[in-house]
Amino acid sequence: MTNTTVSFVTGQRGAMKLKYDNYTYICVKQLKGRKYWTCSKQRSRKCMARLITDLDIDKINARNTTHNHPA
Ligand SMILES: [Zn+2]
Q: In this predicted structure, what is the pLDDT of residue 44?
């Protein structure tokens, strides 16, 4: 997992968003030691991009970074 640039931004109501490759993701669920993130534009754009990380978010376990919109 080199050249990964993950950072965090605090969105409305203090919700933490993950920023990856200039796209932002919202944590939708946490299950079995993993966090599931969907693109923050999922609702408005029906974007299907998503990430799965471990709980500490220092590792991305799976990703679909095909967005149907610009960052
Ligand atoms: Zn997207």
A: 95
